[in-house]
Amino acid sequence: MSDLYQLGRRLTELAYQGMGGSELDLTPSEFLVLRDLFMNGRSSISATVNRTGLAQSKVSTSVAKFRDRGWVTTSPDPSDGRKTLAAVTEEVNLRGDRQRARNATDALDSVLADADPAERRELAGALERLHQLLVADQPAEVRTLPSERPV
Asked: How many Cβ atoms sit within 10 Å of the Cβ of residue 72?
């Protein structure tokens, strides 16, 4: 199990880098909050806490940082003025769409440079198949953009 855990962590690091997390000067937990708001749209702090598993103070601090950077807008929840709603800006949505459209093969090619091209293709195919089996075929677990949801 340790091997699976280490592999998962390494793949998470590669995805974080490949989606531009390190370029944004964010901690992994801040990136998780930003990604959650990007994928789920306008949300309360408590909903983001529930989805990410992070402490409320961490989510609130991250949202405040994003608001100061102009990446997120906040507003009171009309149904409960004590709650704060947060949403990423259109600029963040557009940048996120571009990053999300990138192929995982690009990130893998740099770390698999010692493997020959045929082996890299085989490994990328295996990763794609794992994604299909473990993620894509589990719709309740997959978050999609509103534009990707059936009408």
From this structure: 22
